[in-house]
Amino acid sequence: MKLRNISRISAYAFGLALVAAPVSAAEFGMWDADRDAGLNNSEFRTGFEKAGVFNEWDADSNAALTESEFETGLGDNATAFNTRFGEDAFNEWDVNNDTRLTDSEFYDGVYASYDENNNNIIEEPEFGDVGDDMGDGGLWDV
Length: 142
Ligand SMILES: [Ca+2]
Ligand SMILES: [Ca+2]
Ligand SMILES: [Ca+2]
Ligand SMILES: [Ca+2]
Description:
The protein is mainly alpha-helical. It has one domain (24-134): Recoverin, domain 1 (Orthogonal Bundle). The protein has helices at residues 2-20, 28-31, 41-49, 53-57, 67-74, 78-85, 89-93, 103-114, 124-134, and strands spanning 38-39, 64-66, 100-102, 122-123. A two-stranded antiparallel sheet has the order 1-4. The structure holds calcium ion (4 copies). One calcium ion is lined by residues 32, 34, 36, 38-40, 43. Residues 58, 60, 62, 64-66, 69 line the site of one calcium ion.
């Protein structure tokens, strides 16, 4: 009886270990193409584009996101998104104020938001949030 309980507990612990294993879709080292321990805008964009968020959200495939496409894309993640990027991210990222986000406006906006110390490089600690948001069930899990 006692033995059986122990084996059940270790099976449970083993299951937890599997669940707790990192499921991040994003690896800093793989994104940092020139290995200078920071991600510049183009390294970030190359890595981030693989998630396919912009194209997925761009429902009519006209290479621009309207606010409605943006909100539909966010769906249930709107609250988490607003916590991370602020409630007015769409308008802040729309640099030319034409009420549409091009892919560059979108990627630049996301990039600048993760670059918390505003030095135009995403360092590994800043990248932690990117990894979280790109993992299963994260903001960018499309
Ligand atoms: Ca780099
Ligand atoms: Ca569109
Ligand atoms: Ca725009
Ligand atoms: Ca930075």
